[in-house]
Amino acid sequence: MEISELLDRIHFLPYPDRGLEIMLYRWRSDGTYLKAALIYLQEECHGYLPYFCFLTLEGKSLFHLIQEKVASDEQFPLTKVCLKANLKRTLELDLTYLEIGWMREWRNACRPNTWEEAKASLYRAASLHDNYQSGTIFLDCTLVVIAEKLLAENMELFNKWKAHIEDFDFSKEPDAQVCRREYMDILSHFSIANFDIDLFWYKYAVKMNKWNDKMVARNQLRQTDESQQLEEYRSKYRRLEELCGSVDGGIDGMVQNLLLTAKCESYWMTNEPENKC
Q1: 211 with 186: CB under 8 angstroms?
Q2: How far is residue 108's CA from residue 105's CA, in Å, rounded to a whole number?
Q3: 136: Cβ contacts below 8 Å, ≥ 6 apart
Q4: What angle do CA 183, 52, 97 make, to 5 degrees?
Q5: Can you give the chain as a three-state secondary structure string?
Q6: Res 189 pLDDT > 70
Q7: Cα 247 to Cα 258: distance, rounded to the nearest angstrom
Q8: How far apart are CA 93 and CA 90, in angstroms?
Q9: Which of 66, 146, 153, 240: CA 20 to 30 A from 276?
């Protein structure tokens, strides 16, 4: 069946949240079904949302069905869009009464977390999800979706702190560095992962590292300047000690003489000549 004909039938279903399941049972890996499914999920995610919490009519996991019916090169983009369509509204609505075990862990991973906390939730979700005959596609794609969510959050915070630093508020540099390190930790996971994140995140990492190089150079220069300034003060102090060697009381006596001289000069400038020192 052509996808256009199938979409017309799905449109008139009393339960449109079963639309993706119907597509999967009729799936053709010629690109047309994938393109239609991606558009359908993005446009009809309001109908898809409750479906995400359930098994298929045959009792299979949705993601197992994707692995069974869809060509390997189409599985990742389809699963990723399924998860992304659900990500935002998963947190907006209270669906705890619909949850099964793996769904609860997926929701935990969607909430604000560190990368390590999110990974722990996703591995637990995958372990529970295996009871529903799921393979690795679920775990691989959830890791990518949550990673890109956290990368976006850290990038936004990093830009916020960087703007403060550019306005000479250097107290925000530690905050920016925390975001940068978390960002890099997330990227490092995908050096050995089965699926990769979007290239955009790697490009932005280059910008982060260039910024970090500038901060390191600035801090080294500041430390050098401070050391040079301290050494200059020490040199001037030693010279002052040498000059004061012949003055009674040593350097303390010299300081007292300087203070008295300054006091007389100030008095001279503000009083009549006959009252001058």
Answers
A1: no
A2: 5
A3: 126, 194
A4: 100
A5: CCHHHHHHHHHCCCCHHHHHHHHHHCCCCCCHHHHHHHHHHHHCHHHHHHHCCCCCCCCCCHHHHHHHHCCHHHHHHHHHHHHHHHHHHHHHCCCHHHCCHHHHHHHHHHCCCCHHHHHHHHHHHHHHHHHHCCCCHHHHHHHHHHHHHHHHHHHHHHHHHHHHHHCCCHHHHHHHHHHHHHHHHHHHHCCCCCCCCCHHHHHHHHHHHHHHHHHHHHHHHHHHHHHHHHHHHHHHHHHHHHHHHHCCCHHHHHHHHHHHHHHHHHHHHHCCHHHCC
A6: yes
A7: 12
A8: 6
A9: 240
**Token representation of residue 193:** 């992962």
What average pLDDT score do residues 201-215 get? 92
User: What tokens does 98 get?
Assistant: 């619909």
6, 26 contact by CB (below 8 A): yes
pTM recorded for the entire structure: 0.71
- Nearest alpha-carbon partner for 193 in 143, 231, 243: 143
- Torsion angle in degrees (nearest 10) through CA of 120, 125, 130, 133: -150
pLDDT for 109-131, tens place per residue?
Answer: 888 779 999 999 888 888 877 65
- State the Cα–Cα distance between residues 26 and 7, nearest whole angstrom: 11
For residue 135, what are its two tokens? 């393979």
Whether residue 268 has pLDDT greater than 60: no
